[in-house]
Each structure stands twice: as C-alpha cells, then as structure tokens.
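Appendix B, record 7
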Amino acid sequence: MIRVEHSGDCCTITLARPEKANALTEAMLKSLASAVLATSAKVLILTGEGKVFSAGADLDGMRAGLGLSPAWEAASGAIAAFPGLSIAALNGTLAGGAMGAALACDLRIAVPSASFFYPVMRLGYRPQPSDPGRLAALVGPARAKMILLAGQKIDAETALAWGLIDRICAPDTLIDTAMSLAEHALAADPGHVAALKRMTNGETP
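Structure tokens (predicted):
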C-alpha cells in the first residue's frame, strides 16, 4: 500500500490504496517512515494514487486506537528530518491525519480540485502533536484555528493564498512540476542541500 520508486537521486513514495481513498493504516505509516529513513536520495516526492491524496486515517483503524499510535509522529518526523528537499505532490484532497505528512514536507503542490480539511474538532480527536505547530508556521495561528477549531474546509485557491500550498498545477503535470522544483537540489552536492535546508529552518548550518 506504499510504493517506493527511485530514479537517480529522487525517491518517489506513493500512497497506493486508491480503493480506500488512500486512507492511512498503521502499517502504511510504518512503511512510510521506514522508506523515508532508508533512502539516500537528495529529493523526496510524496504523492498518492488515484484522485485523492489521502482521506486521512483508516476508520477501522481509528476504532481500534490508531489515533493514539506513535506511528503518526514517526512518519511525519522522518519526513521532517529528511536532509534533502521534500515535496508533497498532492494529487487530490488532503484530509485529517494525512495532513501531517504533507505539513512535514518542504514544499506542497496540488491539483486544482484538491481540498483541505482536518476535522478533529467535529470528530472529537486531537491532531498529532507536531501538526498544529507546523500548520500555524505556514498559514499563521488564526488560519490554523480556522482549520482545526472552526473545522473549515478550504479549496486549492484558498490554500495557495494562505500559504498552505506553494503552487497549483494540472493533474497531468503534477509530477513534472515537482521534478522541475527539484532540479537544482538534484544537481547540487547533498551536503549543500542539507545545509541550506537547515538554514531556512532556522537551524545551525
């Protein structure tokens, strides 16, 4: 349910459970974290199969306690710690707990039909610990509260205006756009990529 493909110094990880709108199970989260930690690529692209990036957590899993699993933080933490350039190529709607993986990426691009929501208030769950801070860092505290506390569902144009995503592109150009954004990182020394990333994250280079 996680497909990993390497092409040169680029690693593409695809959520491949389209029949369930790529809803995330614990096994998928663990596989995602393992794949990110295992790659030595300079660039990581995270995308989904089908017309939805991910509907969030698998409902059967949530009933069995998935919401409290450390696998969520392990997956987003692995992505955040990836030393190269990470790009979420959102092929459709990004919902619920799947937001964490996309928020942990350096860049986010999306198709025009994508929508974004995190219904933790309505469902009575708490977001994963790192998600609110990462969300607020991108869109600001008030807009983060619009999504988390007011339960607002936003479209791609609004997400772009708020800074949640960085570019909107046609579905048939999504991966090509990601590769275009990765061009300079792929051509650079990996140590240089890692140093620039640490600097833009406010860390010591």
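Remarks on this record: Residues 2-200 form a domain with the 2-enoyl-CoA Hydratase; Chain A, domain 1 fold (CATH 3.90.226.10). The first helix runs from residue 26 to 38.
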